[in-house]
Write a structure and sequence with these properties.
The chain has 146 residues and is mostly helical. The protein has one domain: Up-down Bundle (Methane Monooxygenase Hydroxylase, Chain G, domain 1), CATH 1.20.58. It is built from five helices and no strands. Helix 1 packs antiparallel against helix 3, helix 2 packs antiparallel against helix 3 and helix 3 runs antiparallel to helix 5. The chain is rod-shaped and about 110 Å long.
Amino acid sequence: MDAGRIYQLKRELLEFKRAVMPLAGALQRLSEGSTPGIPPKVATYFRDVADHHQRVSEQILSFDELVSGMLSASIAQLGVQQNADMRRISAWAALIAVPTMIVGVYGMNFEHMPELKSPYGYPAVWAFMAIVCTVIYRALRRNKWL
């Protein structure tokens, strides 16, 4: 169930609670038979109504606890999903960081880099980047980050 629907249920329960809970005192006084103008025979009916009110009040409270638990579970599930998304984003950032660092070093235009004079320097750097990225990718896949 999505969080929007749970919040809607929570609001409806709050409205119901606000409508039902204030009646407890009045029903208690009416059911005791001490209210002037109310015959004692009618007070027995008010006792029945007060009992029903008590039952409904308890149900409202239990539903409120249930909906609060559902909301907590929904928020926890959302947090777990966000953590999984953040792991995925971090994994891709790690994969991109390695070649970026290597290319950044080679983009500094140093004169005394041994690989620059070698005919295989450029392909060797590409091969090294591919190997490092492959190793990182496999490690991240094995750990279920990707």
